[in-house]
Each structure stands twice: as structure tokens, then as C-alpha cells.
Amino acid sequence: MDLPALPMTGALSEGFAEAFGRAPEGVWHAPGRVNLIGEHTDYNDGFVLPFALPLGVSVAAARRDDGVVEVRSLQAATAVTAPVDGGTVASENWPADREWAAYPVGVARVLREHGTGGASLLIDSDLPQGAGLSSSAALECATALALCDLYGVEIDRPALARLAQRAENEQVGMPCGLMDQSASLLCAPGRALMLDCRSGLSSQVPFDPAASGMVLLVVDTRASHALTGGDYGRRRAECEEAASLLGVSALRDVKDLAAALAALRDPVLRRRVQHVVTENHRVEAAVGLLRAGALPELGAMLNASHLSLRDQFEVSWPEADATVDAAVRAGARGGRMVGGGFGGSAIVLTPAARAATVRDAITAAYARRGWTPPEFLEAPPSEGAHRVS
Ligand code: GAF
Where is the Galactokinase N-terminal domain (predicted)? Predict the structure, then answer.
């Protein structure tokens, strides 16, 4: 399968010159991510294990001295101009066709406190929208790197990830955790990123499916997801309520699962706790398997994570369930939904020799149900955010 070409920075620079009447001062790129395992653990102060995709967002940028951010995108018709010293975008009720620009403008407003200023930005993305592959975080991180470089502001990457997360929480109004921004800024080729979302400490874990004769397929289920709806926030609130009832500062601190389940009366909260506590253990087990060179064994962890997300956390959707089921029946080692849920993508770990059979089985399962055919991406673990030119 042919992967989309890397961002054409020449074309982006030319587009910038056409849009803004001058050359950009540089071009920056930030990738989308796939989370191998550790879902809905980040805002519970837990562990995640994402890796960076070869697809992402590129931003051509130049400073401006009028205190304004002007954002244009090759994927959007509307140009958006906003002052850097405004309040929060979330409180300004932007019309739907400007919502995409809340991410770069939000980042510019948060980073202003650290010494950055106005900018002209032209954005290009080759990440599918609504596929749960973190196009929003990639847009935030490419913008954040561009602004820091342009204004000579030095912020280390873990701190920059927290600022980009803050922009999404406060400016956009989406109560996401730390995973996606950290993945985009900290991931490395051939590695997955083990991140402790409480301390912010991370380590690079070898992750090279091809070397083990395996393929990790990303399956865009074509059921579009939007986490700005209430479901994600409700899950987060349920976890916080359970932690408070259990007298811990976050569900990461639950050490005795049986005792915690016995202490909670609400069956919904019990299910949420069951997922978060076991998912944190699965991340640690997965890291152990990868470090031991036992990558195919990860399949069982992915299956267990999927069942937990489906039955305990209740964030899966029919296309993701059918994908995992069809893949495993066709000989994949395992699979699971990825990201926040309610639509988006799934991953499937399969021996390379069975990849075509597995893909065909998934496609046939969709066709039997009359669903839009899925899209497949091969996803070698790729480079984190960087300056391109
Ligand atoms: C979304 C959020 F943005 C992340 O912070 C994380 O919570 C994820 O859903 C679920 O693991 O991608």
C-alpha cells in the first residue's frame, strides 16, 4: 500500500507566499498518534503507550507585530484572524466554520504568557479528520513549536505538551488528558512512548513490528468521532467522582481493585474503575513484553483492552467491535479501538503473512453490514514534531 507523501514544504511555502505576500520564516511538522495501549488512563494520572504516525500537520509561519494571529489552511476555505491577547476562544462562540482555528489561536494565546506574539500561519494536514488520530493535538503542537522557534522562547518538550494540553482544555473547552500532545512532541522513530501522566516522565520503548514479522494496521472505521460532545467529559467526571468516593487523588492510586469495587455502590462507577485500574496494569505488561522482544504476545493485551473499553468503559462502537472480531477470526494476534472512542480508528496486530487476509476479512465484515468500507494505514512508528525548514 502506498503511504501519502510527506508534507510538501515547498508547496506550503509557496502557498504561504501567495496567501500572505511574503515568504514564511520556517515550516514545522507535528505528527498524529496511535495509542498502542493505555486508553482513558491519562486523565486518571496513569500510563499510556502511544507512537507517532508518519502523517501529521505542517505549519508555515512568520511573525507579525500587530498582536494578531492570522490562520489559513489548505483544507479550509475560511481565513481566521484573532488577537493574541483575547480571552478564551471557548467563550467567544466562534461559528462552526472557524472552529478548526481555535486550536492554533488557543495555543498562541496560552504561549503569549511565555513571550511569543502574533503570527501568520498556513496549515496543511494529511491526517484524516475525525479518525481519532489526534489531528487536533498535531495542529496544536506544530503551532506551538513554530511560535517558540519564531520568538526564541525555550520551553522543554514535556512542558510544551502541558501548555498545548492547557490550550485545548481552556481555550477549546475539551477536557483532554496529556497523551496526545506528549505523543506528538516526544515520540521517536521505531519507538513507543511510555508516559507516566502524573510525573510527566517518559521513556522510549522499542517498537518495531516489521522486525518481528508483524504488521500493525490502523483501521479508520469511517465512523467519525467528535470528542467535544459530552461523552468524553462524562467519562472523565465519572472517574473523578469514583476517585473522590474512594478517597484517592486519582484512580491511578487504587492499589486494591477488589476492595475499591466493594466500596462503590454505583455499578457504572465500578465498571469505570475496573477499566482504568486494569488498563494501567496492561500498559506496564505491554512495556515488559516489548522490552523482552515478545511483540506478538502484545495481541492478547490489545484484545483485553478492547473488551474492557467495550464492556467496562463503554466507549467502543459497532465498527470497532466488528473490526477486532473479524481480524482475530482471520488470524490477527489482537486488536482494539484507539483514542477517546465513540468512532474513529482501531488497530490490529497481525503476522505480516496474514495481513492481506485480515484486511480482506475486515472489509468483508463491513460489506456484510452495509457499512462504508474501512480505510487501512500501515503505521511505522515515526518521528515526533520537528522543524522542517
Ligand atoms: C483522547 C484524549 F484527547 C486523550 O487525552 C485521551 O484521554 C484519549 O482520548 C483516551 O485515551 O484522545
Answer: 15-63
Report yes or no on 78 lying in a domain. Answer: yes
Reading the block at residue 308, the C-alpha cell is 474492557
Structure-block grid coordinates of residue 95: 461559528
Sequence-ordered list of residues with C-beta below 8 angstroms from that of 148, at least 6 positions apart, any chain: 111, 114, 116, 154, 155, 160
Helix, strand, or coil (residue 282):
helix
Position 274: which residue type?
Q
Mutate to test the pocket of ligand 1, among 176, 227, 282 (most ligand atoms within 8 A of CB): 176
What global pTM score does this model have? 0.96
Spatial neighbors of 297 by CB under 8 A, at least 6 apart, are 289, 333
Please report, for the domain that includes residue 186, its CATH number: 3.30.230.10
Would you say residue 368 lies in a domain?
no
Three-state DSSP state, 151: helix
DSSP 41-87: -GGGT-EE-EEEEEEEEEEEEEEESSSEEEEEETT-S--EEEETT-S
- Identity of the amino acid at 150: L
Between the alpha carbon of residue 170 and those of residues 40, 90, 164, 174, the distances in Å are 19, 7, 10, 8
Domain with 101 in it: 7-207
CA of 227 to the centre of ligand 1 (A): 9
For residue 273, being part of any structural domain is answered with no
pLDDT digits (tens, 9 = 90+) for 200-250: 999 999 999 999 999 999 999 999 876 656 999 999 999 999 999 999 999
Give a yes or no: residue 351 inside a domain: no
- Cα of 339 vs centre of ligand 1, distance in Å, is 5
Q: How long is the chain? A: 389
Which of the listed residues 180, 181, 336 should we mutate to test ligand 1's pocket, taking the one with most ligand atoms within 8 A of CB?
Answer: 180
Interface pTM (ipTM) of the complex?
Answer: 0.99
Ligand 1 center from residue 153 Cα (angstroms): 28
Residues 259-310: tens digit of each pLDDT: 999 999 999 999 999 999 999 999 999 999 999 999 999 999 999 999 999 9
Among 7, 1, 2, 66, smallest CA distance to 383 is for 7
Cα radius of gyration (the chain) = 21
Q: What is the dihedral of CA 210, 212, 214, 220, to 10 degrees?
A: -60
222: left (phi over 0), alpha (psi -120 to 50) or beta: left
Please state the domain count of the chain: 1
Contact of 348 with 360, CB cutoff 8 Å: no
